[in-house]
Amino acid sequence: MAKLSLKEIDPAFTEALDKESAEEMTAAYLQKMYHLLYRMFAENKTSLLINLHGIDTSGKDGTISHIFSGANPQGVNVYSFKQPSEEELRHDFLWRCHIRCPEAGTTAIFNRSYYEEVTTVKVHPKKLLTEHLPLNDINQKDFFEKRYVQINNFEKMLVENGTTVVKIFLHISKAEQKRRLRERLRDSTKNWKFSKSDVKERKHWGSYMKAFDQMLAATNTSHAPWHIIPADKKWYRNYLTSQIIVDRLSEMHLKFPKLKKTKNVKISG
């Protein structure tokens, strides 16, 4: 797979599309998405995992709301992975996400995931001390390289068992993050989204960008490739996300199950 780098992608890129045209195409994609997800639910053989990642304020919640507007809620589940519980910390780092992976016919959307364990934890390695790991393992130079391999193997296992894995990285600029943080402070309807920790983490912007690049390069595989979305413009983010999901669903060749031949079936009344 080609090596990915955030440095090579402009967060404000829009393909020279205008907002109105993009929103028209987005609406068409959402309609297709609805029918494809409904067909997958009816077929009940395969599943879809949408893994969203990105720095604070990159638009994960907004993207999830957008995807839901093109899906039947009956077959879609959203899981937001925040600070691990003590039970989760006593298991391997993939465990809490594995048990939330989609069952046949359904879609799971991960708002953050096991990728926090090779990004946020890499920026703040002291977090490893809470994970009940042998100190000898933590101190090994290839600790995170081993985790990359474990993630790749885990996703390959999911794919081989019928789950299509769509990984989307929402890429915003530092200037756009600042604007969104200020908006959360000014807009009373968005105050609840504001967290002092977001401002604190912003000081580590350079370290996060480096960790993201290393993660993207190491886990961009043929069975579960990354899609980097320029996300400064929300309307373009929604357009491109819709397109990617529809394209991946189309590749699954979903079919409605055929009714088995039945004899002497009578419907009374």
SSE inventory with pairings:
Elements: H1 19-43, E1 47-54, H2 60-68, E2 76-80, H3 86-89, H4 95-98, E3 107-111, H5 120-123, H6 135-138, H7 143-160, E4 163-171, H8 174-186, H9 196-202, H10 205-219, E5 226-230, H11 234-250
Parallel strand pairs: 1-3, 1-4, 2-3, 4-5
Helix pairs in contact: 1-11, 2-11
Structural description of this entry:
The chain is globular, with a radius of gyration of 20 Å. 45% of the residues lie in helices and 12% in strands. The protein starts with 18 loop residues before the first helix and ends in a 19-residue tail after the last helix. It has 269 residues and is an alpha/beta fold. It has a 5-stranded parallel β-sheet, with helices on both faces. The protein has a single domain, classed as Rossmann fold (3-Layer(aba) Sandwich), CATH 3.40.50.300. The chain contains 11 helices and 5 strands, in the order αβαβααβαααβαααβα.
Defining key terms:
269 residues, Rossmann fold
Percentage of residues assigned to helices: 40-55%
User: What low-confidence regions span 5 or more consecutive residues with pLDDT below 50?
Assistant: none
| CATH homologous superfamily label | P-loop containing nucleotide triphosphate hydrolases
Tell me what the CATH architecture is: 3-Layer(aba) Sandwich
Please provide a brief summary of the model.
The chain is α/β, with parallel strands linked by helices.
